[in-house]
Amino acid sequence: MISCALTIAGTDPSGGAGIQADLKTFQELGVYGMSVVTSVVAQNTTGVQGVHHMPASFLTEQVRSVRYDMPIHAVKSGMIPTVDMMRAVADQVEHIDAPYVIDPVMVAQSGDELIEESAMEMWKERLIPLATIITPNIPEAEKIIGTSIHSVEDMREAAEHICTVLGASAALIKGGHRDGEALDVLYDGSEWEVFTAERIDTANTHGTGCTYSAAITACLSQGHSLFDSVRISKEYVTAAIRESFSLGHGSGPTNHFAWRKERSI
Ligand SMILES: Nc1ncnc2c1ncn2[C@@H]1O[C@H](COP(=O)(O)OP(=O)(O)OP(=O)(O)O)[C@@H](O)[C@H]1O
Ligand SMILES: Cc1ncc(COP(=O)(O)O)c(N)n1
């Protein structure tokens, strides 16, 4: 049977981030993609021009439409902009018996805030304890744990804190915002792995976080182990950045054709 993955996220009409990036990733990895929209975002490679949120009750209705009818082998959430929506997502995810990947989207790469300031407590209280894996970048991890992160050791401590204190099953701290090689730290409550790739000299990184977490979701839906899922997804996102598109007037989008092309699949 085909593996089925659901993304609960905001949109990007320019196709680089959010639900659009998630569905492209699912498709390229051979997974049947489904999507629930939290917020319709007017954005492009230069930034966010406007947002139009769904009522939380309608978010619930969309998830129910999917889960009452379709198999769900893994689910991810990206931008969940309001506290009410976070509560609605938590209420629904509790009914889905499948791995849950949280990409704790807070700020777009352009610097635009994508969630309510008061939402942090709800992340901690309801969502993080449900996570099979949470994938913060360094600024997001700093906001979650409340201390700053400079070194790889700090990244390890952040991952450990998110698992042991906040209750996620695993945490992947992404180092895309550091200098030097592109290094991410994964901790699953007992084992560590550091994933590294060469830093690619490009400004075209719009949607990398969405792409990475969607790839992890796709791999988990196919039954890969957590560590294998991150390994495959790191290769996927690195290839997508390496061959990213210089489209638009800002940070261009990643290239979802690159991973299969590099493998001649
Ligand atoms: N220039 C780069 N070259 C290679 N890998 C990169 C580069 N920038 C980011 N990465 C990798 O891309 C993945 C996404 O990391 P990043 O920290 O950029 O996430 P993010 O900030 O959530 O993404 P976004 O830019 O979409 O907000 C990580 O594996 C990171 O190491
Ligand atoms: C709907 C949505 N979700 C997530 C991001 C983060 O992506 P990035 O930081 O690459 O802009 C985004 N811009 N829009």
UniProtKB/TrEMBL annotation:
<feature type="domain" description="Pyridoxamine kinase/Phosphomethylpyrimidine kinase">
    <location>
        <begin position="12"/>
        <end position="255"/>
    </location>
</feature>
<protein>
    <recommendedName>
        <fullName>Hydroxymethylpyrimidine/phosphomethylpyrimidine kinase</fullName>
        <ecNumber>2.7.1.49</ecNumber>
        <ecNumber>2.7.4.7</ecNumber>
    </recommendedName>
</protein>
<keyword id="KW-0547">Nucleotide-binding</keyword>
<dbReference type="GO" id="GO:0009228">
    <property type="term" value="P:thiamine biosynthetic process"/>
</dbReference>
<dbReference type="GO" id="GO:0008902">
    <property type="term" value="F:hydroxymethylpyrimidine kinase activity"/>
</dbReference>
<comment type="similarity">
    <text>Belongs to the ThiD family.</text>
</comment>
<dbReference type="GO" id="GO:0005524">
    <property type="term" value="F:ATP binding"/>
</dbReference>
<keyword id="KW-0067">ATP-binding</keyword>
<comment type="pathway">
    <text>Cofactor biosynthesis; thiamine diphosphate biosynthesis; 4-amino-2-methyl-5-diphosphomethylpyrimidine from 5-amino-1-(5-phospho-D-ribosyl)imidazole: step 2/3.</text>
</comment>
<dbReference type="InterPro" id="IPR013749">
    <property type="entry name" value="PM/HMP-P_kinase-1"/>
</dbReference>
<dbReference type="GO" id="GO:0005829">
    <property type="term" value="C:cytosol"/>
</dbReference>
<comment type="pathway">
    <text>Cofactor biosynthesis; thiamine diphosphate biosynthesis; 4-amino-2-methyl-5-diphosphomethylpyrimidine from 5-amino-1-(5-phospho-D-ribosyl)imidazole: step 3/3.</text>
</comment>
<dbReference type="InterPro" id="IPR004399">
    <property type="entry name" value="HMP/HMP-P_kinase_dom"/>
</dbReference>
<dbReference type="Pfam" id="PF08543">
    <property type="entry name" value="Phos_pyr_kin"/>
</dbReference>
<dbReference type="GO" id="GO:0008972">
    <property type="term" value="F:phosphomethylpyrimidine kinase activity"/>
</dbReference>
<keyword id="KW-0418">Kinase</keyword>
<keyword id="KW-0808">Transferase</keyword>
<dbReference type="InterPro" id="IPR029056">
    <property type="entry name" value="Ribokinase-like"/>
</dbReference>
<keyword id="KW-0784">Thiamine biosynthesis</keyword>
